[in-house]
Amino acid sequence: MPAAVFRSFSVTLPESAYPDTRVAARLRFDPALPYGVELAFPPHRPGGEEITWRFGRDLLAEGRLTPAGEGDVRVAPGPDGRILITLGALGPQAERALISTPDTAVAAFLAEAYTEVPPGTETAHLDLAPGLARLLA
């Protein structure tokens, strides 16, 4: 079984009240869920919860080159070697957040993820047996 891929780095929130403040973030790819990636933000205070967004691995790859995505997650190339990820519907007020990530970190993460599960081989990594067993029980 291929190994999970993690990449930690700092992001900024250019449309926030503190656009230059760096925030810890992590990308994760689980080969058991080969079509998606997670973008997670660790708790910023003790007892807080990690905030995690899941979206398509190919969306992240496409968005490095050209604006991509519809709905709650959009990815686009940004200025100065950055990737801009827009996360929508945050909180009860349906706010959105613009996340600016370093392209070098995203590119390295995707290279590792595509090494673990090459494009076009995703279905071979899906374990459908447990779900089918539940459906047929």
From TrEMBL:
Name recorded for this polypeptide: Putative sporulation and cell division protein
CC annotations in GO: cell septum
GO biological process: division septum assembly; sporulation resulting in formation of a cellular spore
Cell division in keyword set: yes
Gene3D superfamilies in the cross-refs: Sporulation-specific cell division protein SsgB
Coiled-coil regions listed in the entry: none
Compartment annotation: Cell septum
Location (main, coarse): other
Species name: Kitasatospora setae (strain ATCC 33774 / DSM 43861 / JCM 3304 / KCC A-0304 / NBRC 14216 / KM-6054) (Streptomyces setae)
Family the entry assigns: Belongs to the SsgA family.
Keyword list, A-Z: Cell cycle, Cell division, Septation, Sporulation
Keyword ATP-binding on entry: no
Cross-referenced InterPro entries: SsgB, SsgB_sf
